[in-house]
Write a structure and sequence with these properties.
There is one protein chain. It contains nine helices and no strands. It is mostly helical. The protein folds into two domains: about 90 residues, RNA polymerase sigma factor, region 2, helix turn helix motif (Rna Polymerase Sigma Factor, Chain: A, Orthogonal Bundle), CATH 1.10.1740.10; about 110 residues, Winged helix-like DNA-binding domain superfamily/Winged helix DNA-binding domain (Arc Repressor Mutant, subunit A), CATH 1.10.10. It is elongated, with a radius of gyration of 18 Å.
């Protein structure tokens, strides 16, 4: 395995090294795939989005100016490719969250771990995962992308703003609105013995408009 940095690998690729870009993809493909899958909600669409993104990155590598990390640049291209596919898709099928959704790097802020089904009950846990992904798929594409990056992939708001190429306030707004919709949609998972939606906590004052 190469000890070169991501930026060095990208520079080597631009200089004609036939192996450099392949090494770069190997380092980050799993996380890029996870982002695409959670954003599109469909494995075929995610696969196509990643393929489109990597082809674009391969061809546009000489446009990378080093103003952000290479991983930020790659994620931006993958997210944009995923959003493009979502906007073109008339019907949005849904799939269970990938197994890595529970990895240490994720921050499951959408619903409390204690509110999920007993992990010993595989069937009920799977049904819960299906419901969570279905609810996520119902969000507008921009809100879903923000929540995937911040709440599921563990990126900071600052990092997500660079990936999505929008102000931090916009990322916060999209996350805030998306969380509120998810909390209402998934209220029965948090309060199985209660009627009516749960009350959501404010994750910070957000006044920026434009996202619905």
């Amino acid at each position: 395995m190469s000890t070169a940095t991501d930026a060095e690998l990208l520079a080597s690729h631009c200089a004609g090294d036939p192996e450099a870009f392949t090494e770069l993809v190997k380092r980050h493909r799993d996380r890029l795939w996870a982002v695409a899958l959670r954003t599109t909600g469909d494995p075929e669409e995610a696969s196509d989005a990643v393929q489109d993104a990597l082809i674009s990155a391969y061809r546009r590598a000489d446009q990378f100016r080093g103003e952000s990390a290479v991983t930020t640049w790659l994620h931006r291209i993958v997210v944009n490719a995923s959003l493009d596919r979502m906007r073109r898709r008339a019907v949005r099928p849904w799939v269970p969250l990938p197994e890595e959704s529970g990895e240490e790097g994720s921050r499951a802020v959408l619903i409390d771990d204690s509110a999920l089904a007993d992990p010993r009950d595989a069937i009920e846990s799977r049904e819960t995962a299906l419901e969570v992904q279905a609810a996520l798929n119902e969000l507008p594409p921009d809100q879903r992308a923000a929540i995937v990056l911040v709440d599921l992939e563990g990126y900071s708001v600052e990092e997500a703003s660079r990936i999505l190429e929008c102000p931090e306030g916009t990322v916060k707004s999209r996350c805030f609105r998306g969380r509120a919709k998810l909390a209402e949609r998934l209220s029965h998972l948090r309060n199985p013995s209660r009627e009516g939606p749960v009350r959501t906590q404010d994750h910070g004052a957000v006044t920026e408009g434009g996202d619905t």
